[in-house]
Structure formats: structure tokens, C-alpha cells
Design goal:
2 domains, about 15% strand, globular, TIM Barrel
Length: about 270
């Protein structure tokens, strides 16, 4: 790849100030990280959604810190320009600020990621302050928090009631004051996401939170149409990779079985 200026926290801040939208996607390996980087994606999140997309789990809870580090190391090897952000998985930051600080430090040191992300608001402020004071950029995550899905009892949108909406606004302000450089807003009403975005000086990245955020993120498997039975309203499918992969693999199997692959030109 040709040399390109790396996206940093300052880049994202300047994009917000200029009104330039931030394009973000997840990735879990070097190939997809490289493709999305070449495509001009600004932020690549090594999300704990790897538990669902790659590992086949129903929730994000089973993925471990070591697994996040493994996948983040793979992604950073394929990326030159985009900011790579690694999720702090379930129970890697909830026990104590010391734990959160230590685990975030491991991610930064071992993976060469540009930042970490953690779910939650006021309960994490000490952790965010510790990390940012030590030079670890922190991305927040409010609204629907998949690591708390058993507490919520489902994946319904958050912030529809006034009390919860007020809490999301307050948590966003508190995260900003604690040093977070960006906040993901997941599955909250569009007007609430716009309110949070306009009240913050740091950028917001939405997923199922309307067009009023400073940027958008999707799980790449959903965006490419690799997921067959998952059709949330906030996902726009830009391709039908599942169908095309099935057809390609089926044709390959047929060619192997009938002896037409490999042919003479494909042999040594």
C-alpha cells in the first residue's frame, strides 16, 4: 500500500468540526482490515461482536481479552491508514479501575491499536480517567450495550423513556469530561442521538441511532450480506456475499467432483 496519513483522535475531532462524516466498520482479521482500509474506512473496530460473527456465540459475553488481542493484532497488520479500535470485552474492565487500566494497557502494547472501547457511562469514569491520563485513547459506548443484554432482557432500543434518555445524555457528558475522545451510540432514538451529538464537542458514531451522529458503524458481515437470518432495520446491505459465496463454493465442489478442476493450466 502507498503511504497514507494515519487517522488519529485529532483526525476524528477535526472531522466533526468540519462536518465531515466518519465511516466505521468492524473487522476481525488482516484481510478484511486491509480491504476496508483501502476502501477509505476511517475507523475499524475489532469488536466483541467477533463472538457472534466468528465464534458462533449468541451473545458477545464469551469472548476473552486474549481473543480480542489475537484478532486486533491480525487487523493492525493489514491496516495502514484507519484507526484501529479494540473492544474491552466483558469482565475485562468491570471489576475495578486497576483491572481496566491494566487490560487496556495490554491491548495497546501488544496489538498496536490506536484506542480501546468500553461500554457504559458513569460507572466507568475512574477507568476512563486513568487510561486517558496514561495516554490510552478511550471510545465510549452508550445506549444498547450488548454486554448487558441479560440485564436488559433483549435487544430493544434504549432511551425511549425520558429517565433513561436523560441518563444517556448525562453519561455522554461525563465520558467526555473524563477524557473519552468519541462515543458510540447504539440503538437509541434518532432525536436523542442528535441531541447528544450536538451537546458534545467530541464525535459520536451511531449504529441504529439515526443520521444525526457524526459517523456510522456497522458489523461488516451484516453490511456485506454475510449474515442470513439477521435483518435489523438499521442495517443496509450493500451486497449479498452469503448467496455469492454459496454459489461459488457449490461451483467449486462440482468442478472438483466432475474432474474439471484443476485443468492443465492450473497444474504444474
Amino acid at each position: 500500500m502507498s503511504q497514507a496519513k494515519r487517522v488519529t483522535t485529532r483526525t476524528l475531532q477535526e472531522m466533526k468540526e468540519k462536518g465531515e462524516r466518519i465511516a466505521a466498520l468492524t473487522a476481525y482479521d488482516a484481510i478484511m482490515g486491509n480491504l476496508f482500509d483501502r476502501a477509505g474506512i476511517d475507523v475499524i473496530l475489532v469488536g466483541d461482536s467477533v463472538a457472534n460473527v466468528v465464534q458462533g456465540h449468541e451473545t458477545t459475553l464469551p469472548v476473552t481479552l486474549d481473543e480480542i488481542i489475537y484478532h486486533t493484532k491480525a487487523v493492525t497488520r493489514g491496516v495502514e491508514r484507519a484507526m484501529v479500535v479494540a473492544d474491552l470485552p466483558f469482565m475485562s474492565f468491570q471489576i475495578s479501575a486497576d483491572d481496566a487500566f491494566r487490560n487496556a494497557g495490554r491491548i495497546m502494547k501488544e496489538t498496536l491499536a490506536g484506542a480501546v472501547k468500553l461500554e457504559g457511562g458513569k460507572e466507568n469514569l475512574e477507568s476512563v480517567r486513568r487510561m486517558t491520563a496514561a495516554g490510552i485513547p478511550v471510545m465510549g459506548h452508550l445506549g444498547l450495550q450488548p454486554q448487558s443484554i441479560h440485564l436488559y432482557g433483549g435487544y430493544r432500543p434504549r432511551g425511549k423513556e425520558e429517565e433513561e434518555a436523560d441518563m444517556i445524555v448525562a453519561d455522554a457528558m461525563a465520558l467526555q469530561e473524563a477524557g473519552a475522545f468519541c462515543i458510540v451510540l447504539e440503538k437509541i432514538p434518532a432525536d436523542l442521538a442528535s441531541q447528544v451529538t450536538s451537546s458534545l464537542t467530541i464525535p459520536t458514531i451511531g449504529i441504529g441511532a439515526g443520521a444525526g451522529c457524526d459517523g456510522q458503524i456497522l458489523v461488516y458481515a451484516d453490511m456485506l450480506g454475510l449474515t442470513i437470518d439477521f435483518h435489523p432495520r438499521f442495517v443496509r446491505r450493500y451486497d449479498s456475499f452469503a448467496e455469492r459465496a454459496l454459489n461459488a463454493a457449490g461451483q467449486y465442489a462440482a468442478d472438483v467432483k466432475d474432474g474439471t478442476f484443476p485443468n492443465e493450466d492450473e497444474s504444474y
